[in-house]
């Protein structure tokens, strides 16, 4: 454990589901870092999601996964000291339209990160644009491992309340508790489609609406294209009007033939038949022209960082003072 006296808070970077994120300075190296403060009830133990995130980040060393430098804690907070990444893919997608080479480059970096996770038997379970951070060198890195779990191929029961709704695989929407890392690939497919279409593919406002949008887009699932369908916990609890779905050319009108082929091999009902990250990296999408863009031709993240919301200066100073006392 390192002491917080080695760090100086210089600004607020954001606020996650479990705590504040600050931009900080490592006074020993003059390196800019991200300080993720997670408040803890002193009467309770450290939350499981925090322990999972720390364990995952300590174990996973890869170019396309955010780096964890140090961990420090007190009775009231845990602070994760990580590399500072200026913005997320979500912020970039809000402001610019990516060209195909840039889409391929981000997709390739994402797939490499997911391949590394799955090779090491880790399911991320919350891959979405907001959790894909861009480094100053314009490298995409997977972040936020609070929902990550080990997958060893054994029959286990997992929570289905994972993954942000728009990127949640259909087996999760049907409350499956025996899924595989293919749920991450569904999320990847949705993100690639979003980069191409310039809008989220399945933007449901509720879980029921989410499932309805997926089914109306891809068509009513059958035992032929989803053999495990009737075994899903909520299969008989939710009923929708049957339909054939939409042609992929209508779903993704801006996609070229090769990109379309990749996406429709990932976004399918049967998780066992979705492309793996390695298979996707071997797809023509990554290999053929136009090639993935070079890093120098990718968006500069410092130009797309959203301003953090305005806070009362007194409140802001009190939070910083609290952190600096740790």
UniProtKB/TrEMBL annotation:
The enzyme's E.C. designation: 2.7.11.22
Enzyme type, top EC level: transferase
Keywords noted in UniProt: ATP-binding, Kinase, Nucleotide-binding, Serine/threonine-protein kinase, Transferase
PROSITE patterns in the record: PROTEIN_KINASE_DOM, PROTEIN_KINASE_ST
Gene3D superfamilies (alphabetical): Phosphorylase Kinase, domain 1, Transferase(Phosphotransferase) domain 1
Annotated catalysed reactions: L-threonyl-[protein] + ATP = O-phospho-L-threonyl-[protein] + ADP + H(+); L-seryl-[protein] + ATP = O-phospho-L-seryl-[protein] + ADP + H(+)
InterPro entries for the chain: CDK (IPR050108), Kinase-like_dom_sf (IPR011009), Prot_kinase_dom (IPR000719), Ser/Thr_kinase_AS (IPR008271)
GO molecular function: ATP binding; cyclin-dependent protein serine/threonine kinase activity
Name of the molecule in the record: Cyclin-dependent kinase 20
Protein kinase domain mapped to chain residues: 7-286
Coiled-coil portions: none
Organism lineage string: Eukaryota, Metazoa, Ecdysozoa, Arthropoda, Hexapoda
Keyword NAD appears in the UniProt entry: no
Record Pfam families: Pkinase
Similarity annotation: Belongs to the protein kinase superfamily. CMGC Ser/Thr protein kinase family. CDC2/CDKX subfamily.
């Amino acid at each position: 454990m390192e002491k917080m006296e080695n760090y100086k808070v210089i600004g607020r970077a954001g606020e996650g589901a479990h705590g504040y994120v600050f931009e900080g300075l490592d006074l020993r190296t003059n390196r800019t870092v991200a300080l993720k403060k997670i408040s803890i009830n002193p009467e309770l133990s450290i939350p499981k999601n925090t322990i999972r995130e720390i364990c995952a980040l300590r174990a996973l060393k890869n170019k396309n996964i955010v780096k964890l430098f140090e961990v420090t804690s007190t009775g009231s907070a845990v602070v994760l000291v990580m590399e500072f990444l200026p913005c997320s893919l979500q912020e970039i997608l809000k402001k610019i339209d990516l060209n195909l080479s840039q889409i391929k480059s981000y997709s390739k970096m994402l797939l490499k990160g997911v391949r590394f996770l799955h090779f090491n038997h880790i399911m991320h379970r919350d891959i979405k644009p907001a959790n894909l951070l861009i480094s100053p060198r314009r490298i995409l890195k997977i972040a936020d491992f609070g929902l990550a779990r080990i997958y060893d191929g054994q029959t286990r029961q997992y929570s289905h309340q994972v993954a942000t709704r728009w990127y949640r695989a259909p087996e999760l929407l049907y409350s499956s508790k025996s899924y595989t890392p293919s749920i991450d690939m569904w999320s990847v497919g949705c993100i690639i489609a979003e980069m191409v279409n310039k809008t989220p593919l399945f933007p449901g406002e509720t879980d029921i609406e989410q499932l309805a949008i997926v089914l109306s887009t891809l068509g009513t699932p059958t035992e032929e294209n989803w053999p495990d369908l009737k075994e899903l916990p909520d299969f008989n609890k939710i009923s929708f009007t049957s339909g054939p779905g939409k042609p992929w050319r209508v779903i993704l009108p801006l996609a070229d033939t090769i990109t379309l082929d990749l996406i429709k091999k990932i976004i399918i009902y049967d998780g066992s038949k979705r492309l793996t990250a390695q298979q996707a990296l071997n797809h023509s999408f990554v290999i053929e022209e136009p090639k993935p863009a070079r890093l120098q031709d990718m968006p500069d993240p410092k130009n797309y960082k959203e301003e953090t919301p305005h806070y009362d200066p007194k409140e802001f100073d009190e939070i910083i003072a609290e952190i600096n006392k740790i």
